[in-house]
Specification:
The protein contains nine helices and 14 strands. It is an alpha+beta fold. The structure holds protoporphyrin IX containing FE (HEM). Protoporphyrin IX containing FE binds next to strand 7, helix 8, strand 10 and helix 9.
């Protein structure tokens, strides 16, 4: 029976490292992917495969598409496709680096390491702005229902679709705002995490309220703060059974529906955007059979 990559559903690890790879030698990709399936356990190493890779392999995963080129009200969102996305979960930075090196070696005949980013849990699960992140995440069976494709799609059962966006914060700008304005950007109070009923329509949680969409737009967010040199922000990561819920939220955030832009953009900008399909596991290995690779 197929099961999800367990790292998707588990609580966030203390530390993580994200890797993205681009294709160098398409004809070697299938062999490297088989080798990756041997070393990625789905728990400490979560794997996502991009549209470019699957089309090079001739595999067609219905629902996987490139990240949209979205232009909102006065802003453009970057689309930065990649062939493979890895979320290395752990608790030791050195071990994460060594694991990255081993995986890069396994993939080297076909893939070039394009980006690495270290991430961490901050203050028990807060974004670097200090606001709790993940409060309205579905939990338990609802998390599985939101994130993992079910038996109604037998070929893809146990797999997931992930949207990944690296946001860079201008924390100086955020800190210059009066605290009431900061709370209104998010739509929750930083001091006690209470939702602010009369927050402006631009408040992030008003833009993205999952139950306010038709149909409801539930995703399982597994975002983590990141830091690199003087910069920091949020690696936004949302797993779902399709990209529809994420895209519905994003379209509303950039003002495509009603001209109102999410207040997050006052202090943070997305620097990347990509979609990946996360295969299920079968007998402890990534199940690549939907790609006709075994
Ligand atoms: C700078 C980037 C972002 C930051 C700092 C951020 C932060 C937060 C915070 C603090 C909350 C409130 C607590 C919670 O329910 O988790 C929240 C809620 C939420 N965010 Fe974000 N977020 C970011 C980007 C995004 C993006 C790009 C999306 C989707 C396109 C998104 C979707 C959501 C959803 C669905 C909720 C829960 C809404 C609800 O149902 O109440 N977020 N976010």
């Amino acid at each position: 029976m197929n099961t999800p990559q367990t790292g998707i559903l588990l609580p966030l690890p203390p530390l993580a490292r994200y890797l993205t790879f681009l294709i160098d030698e398409a004809e070697r990709a299938a062999g490297c992917l088989r080798a990756l399936a041997e070393v990625a356990d789905g728990e400490r190493t979560v794997v996502g495969l991009g549209h470019s890779l699957l089309s090079a392999l001739g595999g067609d995963i219905s629902g996987l598409r490139p990240f949209p080129n979205l232009a909102g009200v006065g802003l453009e969102l970057p689309a930065t496709p990649a062939a493979i996305w890895l979320w290395l979960r752990g608790d030791d930075r050195g071990e994460l680096l060594q694991r990255s090196r081993r995986i890069a070696e396994v993939l080297a005949p076909a893939f070039r390491l394009d980006g690495t980013l270290d991430a961490f849990v901050y203050d028990g699960g807060r974004d670097l702005t200090g606001y709790e992140d993940g409060t309205e995440n579905p939990a338990g069976d609802a998390a599985t229902a939101a994130a993992i494709v079910g038996a109604e799609q037998p070929l893809l059962a146990g797999s997931s679709f992930v949207a990944v966006q690296r946001w860079r914060h201008d924390l100086g700008r955020f800190e210059q705002m009066p605290s009431a304005e900061r709370d209104h950007c998010i739509g929750r109070r930083r001091c006690d995490n209470e939702e602010i009923d009369d927050a402006p329509e631009s408040a992030h949680v008003k833009r993205t309220a999952q139950e306010s969409f038709t149909p409801p737009a539930f995703v399982l967010r597994r975002s983590m703060p990141w830091a690199e040199g003087p910069h920091g922000g949020l690696m936004f990561v949302a797993f779902a059974t399709s990209f529809e819920p994420f895209e519905a939220q994003l379209r509303r955030m950039v003002g495509i529906e009603d001209g109102i832009v999410d207040a997050l953009f006052r202090f943070s900008q997305p620097q990347s955007g990509a979609y990946f399909w996360c295969p299920a596991m079968r007998s402890g290995r990534l199940d690549l059979s939907p790609l006709r690779l075994r």
